[in-house]
Amino acid sequence: MQRLLSILAPLVATIPLTLNMYAAWWALQYRMAPVGGNQVIDMRLAKSQSPHYITFCAALANNPHGFPGHAMVVWSKTADWNRVDSETTGFVPSYSRDQLASLFTSVPGLLVHGKAGSMINPDAITVIVDEAEYEKTKKMRYQWNPALFRTGVRDCVAFVDFIAQDVGLMAPSDKFTFPQDHIKKLKLLNTKSLTRLARSSAPQARMPLDRSCNFDHADENNDDKSD
């Protein structure tokens, strides 16, 4: 037993250092690293339809450290997707103390409306839809069963994908990921789909996304011009 303790003691002593190193790496990766900005996709059937905006975004979590990040959906009738002035919904554990436990088992969950996360170092993809689609997805959020939350299975990322797929976006297959990474993958996946569609001239080509023939791709500073 004494020999075992002598072996374990140095390992235990390195745990605080390891955690500090991980915290430093995470801060550099997610708190300080620049994000790609907002990507905008117009999914209206006709540009004459009044634009409504659904934004899928991720930023730091609403705690002093920002760990592990949080993904949410923002509904807005203007191009400004600021979560404070818009309708925001995110899915979180009912109790913050369950965050670690949710890595291993299901814990009570909660749909949070309003301040569902911070807006520090956000990344986002915005879909422009018509009023009918906008109102439909707002109702859909209440179809999400918030009873159980489990990281990588039924978490904030899964809730974002639940709404994103309904409006026609393709969702990444990897769910066990930091929220900010997931939004980057969501943007990249749908950008590639739009690029492939634009390069294809075959009329029989299968459309990768619903209503995709009317998509526009723009950055945050080249938003919809029909307002």
Structure write-up:
The chain is an alpha+beta fold and 227 residues long. The protein folds into two domains: 1-33; 37-219, no CATH class. It has helices at residues 2-13, 15-32, 131-140, 156-166, 179-199, and strands spanning 38-42, 52-59, 70-76, 87-93, 107-113, 123-129, 148-149, 217-219. The longest helix has 21 residues, at 179-199. The protein is elongated. The model is unreliable at 201-227 (pLDDT under 50).
Structural Rg: 20 Å
Strand order of the largest sheet: 7-5-4-3-2-6-1-8
Quickly count the domains: 2
* Weakly predicted, low-confidence segments: 201-227
Listing every helix as H and every strand as E from the N terminus to the C terminus, the arrangement reads: HHEEEEEEHEHHE
Counting H and I runs of at least 4 residues, what is the number of helices?
A: 5
User: How is the quaternary structure best described?
Assistant: single chain
Please identify the structural class as seen in this structure.
alpha+beta
The total beta strand count reads 8
Helical percentage: 25-40%
Main sheet makeup: 8 strands, mixed
Range of strand content: 15-25%
Query: Taking all residues together, what is the mean pLDDT?
Result: 76
The coarse overall form would be elongated
First-residue to last-residue Cα separation: 74 Å
Task: Write a concise synopsis of the structure shown.
This protein is of the alpha+beta class and 227 residues long.
List keywords for this structure.
single chain; 227 residues; alpha+beta; 2 domains; eight-stranded mixed beta sheet; 32% helix
